[in-house]
Amino acid sequence: MAFLGDYHTHTSYSRRGKKLHAVGSVLENAIAAKQAGLKELAITDHGYRHYYGIDKDALDKLKEDCRNAEQVTGVKIYAGLENNLDQRSGKDKGLPALMECTPETLCQLEIVQGGYHAMVGTPTIFRNMLFWARNVIFKFLPSRKKLIERNTAAYKRAIDKYPIDFIGHLNRGILADAVEVACYAHSKGVYIELNGRHKSLSKKQIKKMVEAGVEFICNSDAHTPQAVGTMPLAEKLIKKCGIPYSLIANWDRLPDFRSQNFKRARQQKDGGTIDG
Questions:
Q1: Residues facing residue 167 across a β-bridge
Q2: What digits encode the pLDDT tens for the residues 6-50?
Q3: How confident is the model at residue 117 (pLDDT cuts 50, 70, 90)?
Q4: What confidence tier does 274 reach under pLDDT thresholds 50, 70, 90?
Q5: Reported pTM
Q6: Cα torsion for 84, 87, 89, 90, to the nearest 10°?
Q7: Are 84 and 49 spatial neighbours (Cβ–Cβ below 8 Å)?
Q8: Most buried residue, 118, 160, 250, 258, by most Cβ within 10 Å?
Q9: Cα 31 from chain centre
Q10: Parallel, antiparallel, or unpaired for β 166-167 and 191-195?
């Protein structure tokens, strides 16, 4: 028994000019996935507004690389982006839920990851700094309650608005009610990631999620081909928190992601078609 898919990996498309945030090509990630015994792999380079975000003009090339690597290796490869919450999403119910990718871009993706990175999404550097500082400083102040409520609402509204398949490293760098978000995500068919590189959830939070039947997806968050399919931190959490493997969506089975983007892509890779 083993993990059959890794749905959060990066390549050299995550970069800023010549400065690389991740190394390795799509093909190198795919070869590593095959060597690790994976049946499926997703490439989820950073979205457009991330400091190391993929260039908008490169998305078509990324998708082409995924198709070519799939033909070479036989591993099913899904082209996606790591999308980020905009901090305004939870502030005012009158504002639309916001993620950094436009609906037009999301329609082109085969898998949709939603999450949060600091310094992403807001329209000015000042507002970026302000939101980042609030999430860092307010965790030590009694007034953090309102911020937690806003951020929790932002996660939930993004789940409602966008075809998110899983939430990446929930609560990393952001203050939200992780258990409330996870339970809401579960009710909508969205997986919660156990990240192979970053611990963002406490043992207490994970145990409450398990009690609620929340399903998890374990991913490497690989930034090198050598890390694809390796999830030591996620495996440690499974054992430490007593998570039943029946709640790990990519353990000895393939996950059933909710988006039509993904369902269509998988069926096409299986040689069929899907309506809608």
A1: 114, 192
A2: 999 999 999 888 888 999 999 999 999 999 999 999 999 988 878
A3: confident
A4: very low
A5: 0.91
A6: 130
A7: yes
A8: 250
A9: 22
A10: parallel
Burial class of residue 264 in the structure, from the number of CB atoms within 10 Å of its CB (0-12 exposed, 13-18 middle, 19+ buried): middle
Tell me the residue type at 28.
E
**CB of 6 closer than 8 Å to CB of 41:** yes
Pick the range with the lowest mean pLDDT from 135-149, 154-168, 187-201, 250-264. Answer: 135-149
% of the chain residues with pLDDT over 70: 84
Burial of 176 (0-12, 13-18, 19+ CB in 10 A): buried
Whether the Cβ atoms of residue 172 and residue 192 lie closer than 8 Å to each other: no
Residues 6 or more apart whose Cβ sits within 8 Å of residue 89: 95, 96, 97, 98, 99, 153, 154, 157, 158
DSSP notation for the chain? --B-EE--B--TTSEETTEESS-S-HHHHHHHHHHTT-SEEEEEEE-TTSTTPPPGGGHHHHHHHHHHHHHHH--EEEEEEEEEB-GGGGT-TTSPP-BSS-HHHHTT-SEEEEE--TT-S-SSHHHHHHHHHHHHHGGGSTTHHHHHHHHHHHHHHHHHHS---EESSTTTTS---HHHHHHHHHHTT-EEEEESS---S-HHHHHHHHHTT--EEEE--BSSGGGTT--HHHHHHHHHHT--GGGBTTBSS------HHHHHHHHHHTT-----
Amino acid sitting at position 212: A
Question: Tokens 């982006």 identify what position?
Answer: 81
pLDDT tens per residue across span 96-106 = 566 777 778 88
